[in-house]
Structures are given as C-alpha cells and as structure tokens.
Amino acid sequence: MKKTPKQKVEEVFGKNADKYVTSNSHAKGDDLPLLVDWLKPEKTWKVLDIATGGGHVTKTLAPHVATVFSTDLTRAMLENTAKHLRHNFDNIEYVVADAEALPFLTETFDAAVCRIAPHHFPQPDRFISEVAKVLKKGGKFILIDNVAPADPELAEFMNTTERLRDHSHFRCLSKAEWATLLKENGMKELKSADRRKTFDYPSWVARTAESEGQMEEVSRHLTGATQKAIDYFAINGQDGKIQDFTIDEWMALFEKVDQK
C-alpha cells in the first residue's frame, strides 16, 4: 500500500530522530538567537512550537516564557526530544500534533514558531489557517524554512533534489507563495530576512537517505545540473563528488491582525 505524505514523515523522522537533535543546521543555526530578539517574549506568554523536530526552538524559548507547547507529528521524534530537554526545563508540554489540524482552542497562544519544517506539509494553506486560528489577536508568528527560488526551473531543481534525498519532503514554497497565504489569513508581516544556507553534502545526504543507491541518485542529480543551477545553488564538487551546495532560507515575523 502506498504511504501517504504524513506516513512518510513519521517513518523518516522516527528512524532519524536523534540525528535532528545533533544536526548542525538544526541545532546551531544563527537564526535561533534571533527568535528571542525578534519575538521579545514575555514571562507570561504561552508559546507554540510547531513540528519541533529536535526541540531547538523549544529549548531557545523555554527560559523566556511561561509555557512552551512543543509539538510534532512523529511520536518517536517528540519522545526523543523530551528525553533531551526534560532534565533542564519544567515548563514544556509535549503534544503529538499535526500542523494542519492543531488540537488547540481558538486564540490560545501569544506566539507560535515553525522552523525548517513546512516543506514537509502537504497542505500549507491548512497549516497557516491553523496557525492563525490558535494565535491570539496581536499574537506573533515566526516562519523559518527553506524556500524555492522564484524561477520555476530552479524551484523544480531544488524540490527534486530534496525529494530524491528525503522521501518525506513535499514542496518548498517560494517567499511570494508564503506571503500570500499569510496575508489571506490575517497575518501582517513585521520583519523578514533572506538567508543563504550551505549544506555539507555528505552529512546532509546521509541524514535521511535509506541506501547507498539513494545517495548515488542524489549525487547524479546534482552533478548533472545545468550551469544555471550550479551557479545559483553554488554546487561545489571535486573529482566527481559533491562537497557542498547552498539554498535559500527565509525567516519572517508576522502579527495576527484580523480574523480570517
């Protein structure tokens, strides 16, 4: 039986839970300190961390707020994250939750964050609608994710690369697509930053690939790239082996101003 996109997510992340706790791009990103600077959280706040993965957003915000609800679709991932955080924090609630059907009441949270996860969501419109629903009016939302270039050819190349490496990948949206969805759901952009993120290819491809054959397929795709893609993604290889490449990431802060 063919697996659904969400079953693929649970399978991939369940098997690789600990890798996402230690992954450099997830654990040590320079966007994490910016969360506090941009949100300016208050000690009374109740915050939602959507698709927490290795728990890095939760760990960053927990010292600054009353409670963090740390959520993830994958129970094994969430249990592993709780194992790493429980001995340091007593203000975190761990909830198995689908980002497209959040199990919380309307206007529950002062702030929400979703970091490096929405490209796994098959219905991003549902996700943004849910975020808007559970935020209080005036609540803040930070979205951080890999984004596709505006150029359709480059966007397709990027998404194909991700799908070949990670069968749970659905699609990276462009900044314009995200901005439209957020505006349609009563979210006003307050601040944003365009970022470039370089992956160490050997560790990146090994994180979710299930076989040597799958890793070779990703390598063939990258080494066969057009010059246009090589230039844009800064694909760097030596002796036919990919060393690293670079993609776009977008970090944006929104405020809920209207009901949908």
From TrEMBL:
Q: Give the Gene3D superfamilies listed for this entry.
A: Vaccinia Virus protein VP39 (3.40.50.150)
GO MF term (any one): methyltransferase activity
Q: Which residues form the Methyltransferase type domain?
A: 48-143
> Which BP terms does GO give this entry?
methylation
Keyword terms, alphabetized: Methyltransferase, Transferase
Q: Which domain of life is it from?
A: Bacteria
Q: What is this protein called?
A: Methyltransferase domain-containing protein
The source organism is Planococcus notacanthi
Show the taxonomic lineage: Bacteria, Bacillati, Bacillota, Bacilli, Bacillales
